[in-house]
């Protein structure tokens, strides 16, 4: 409990720093008043709009007002859309979260087993093919993968939709496409596009860690005791392999959630990434600041979940011992 409370305190500090940095940077990305009133507006109209938005106040006062309102769930009004920022984020959040979750499930579900298998079967021809494919997956740009998938599966074969989220179902305040055939079909191409790089990265990391663990002294001791190879590989070696891999999966999930902008733009996916692109073009400071605070919160929650996962994976954590981390 003390560990969790300490991490929650760090989370609050991280959110304050993220809010301050984002508010400071976006204050200089452009003047939203020019976009809101147009070029034909007089100087008096511009000053009136600036006063109505509170942009003529001191920076510290603007930031204090933003933090105070954010504590009550009020992130202000979007300059671009004229709607509450919290409402816009709540509408787009389910789409981005579903895309990030499915892509990471694909990457983790395939990357870890394939990485372990290639480490245990280094001389197999399929292992060499998988390593070459993973190198290609790391090297290729995400947008190029998306365009290639659209060309092949949407244009040539006509099997899958090339844009949009498809049919969704509303459950309370949450919208999901996982319960409809159209939503699932629309999710296939963007989730694969977003997950290819993560899959290649996790595969190569799991392979490298498995090879390192298999050369450790305790593995030699387990062989000397006469344990079966399967028990050595999956009971002893795999658990030690998963510690840095879990760290990487957690960090990559945060990256996927935060930086899905390219994939959402290619597939016109109605998520937070596409919303942020529109906000940047319009210098929508409240929306951009709220988005970065949300991303900082997600990273903090993910790091906390990763640390708690160590307890289930590594007995040394439960006994108060150290644990090796990669990030």
From TrEMBL:
**Domain ABC transmembrane type-1: start-end pairs:** 93-310
Instruction: Please give the superkingdom of this protein's source.
Output: Bacteria
Task: From the UniProt record, list the coiled-coil ranges.
Answer: none
Q: Does the keyword Membrane apply?
A: yes
Report the subcellular localization.
Cell membrane
| Keywords assigned | Cell membrane, Membrane, Transmembrane, Transmembrane helix, Transport
Record's bilayer topology term: Multi-pass membrane protein
- Cite a GO CC annotation: plasma membrane
Q: Pfam families, alphabetically?
A: BPD_transp_1, BPD_transp_1_N
- Asked if Calcium is a keyword of the record, the answer is no
- Indicate where this protein is primarily found: membrane
Q: Which GO terms describe its biological process?
A: transmembrane transport
User: For this UniProt entry, which segments traverse the membrane?
Assistant: 12-30, 99-117, 129-159, 187-206, 242-267, 287-313
Name the CDD domains for this protein. TM_PBP2
PANTHER family for the chain:
ABC TRANSPORTER PERMEASE PROTEIN (PTHR43163:SF2), DIPEPTIDE TRANSPORT SYSTEM PERMEASE PROTEIN DPPB-RELATED (PTHR43163)
* Family affiliation: Belongs to the binding-protein-dependent transport system permease family.
List the protein's name: ABC transporter permease
Q: Please give the organism.
A: Ancylobacter dichloromethanicus
